[in-house]
Amino acid sequence: MIRVLLVDDHAVMRAGFRMILEATGEIDVVGEAGTGAEAIAAASALQPDVICMDVQMPDMDGIDATRR
């Protein structure tokens, strides 16, 4: 299983991506985050294989969050 963390400030987008990814049967969405700061904490705690990161978020954009 590929472990994925979804990061987007819109819950509907995260839900849609989760539904699509988990339907493959080969991907496990291990967590979700709605802000860059939450993404950093979740990535550290969950150690996903892949992070699907939104680039434009209000508090910290995905590029800054990825750098950190």
Descriptive overview:
This protein is of the alpha/beta class. The protein has one domain (2-67): Response regulator (Rossmann fold, 3-Layer(aba) Sandwich), CATH 3.40.50.2300. It is 43% helix and 25% strand. It contains 3 helices and 3 strands. The protein has helices at 11-22, 36-46, 62-67, and strands at residues 2-7, 27-33, 50-53. The protein has a 3-stranded parallel beta sheet with strand order 2-1-3, sandwiched between helices. Strand 1 (2-7), helix 1 and strand 2 form a beta-alpha-beta unit. The longest helix has 12 residues, at 11-22. The radius of gyration is 11 Å and the shape is globular. It starts with a strand and ends with a helix.
Provide the CATH top-level class.
Answer: Alpha Beta
Shape: globular
Number of helical regions: 3
Query: What is the helix fraction of residues, given as a range?
Result: 40-55%
Q: What is the CATH-assigned architecture?
A: 3-Layer(aba) Sandwich
Q: Beta-strand percentage?
A: 25-35%
Topology diagram in text:
Blueprint: E1 2-7, H1 11-22, E2 27-33, H2 36-46, E3 50-53, H3 62-67
Quick overview:
The protein is α/β, with parallel strands linked by helices and 68 residues long. 43% of the residues lie in helices and 25% in strands.
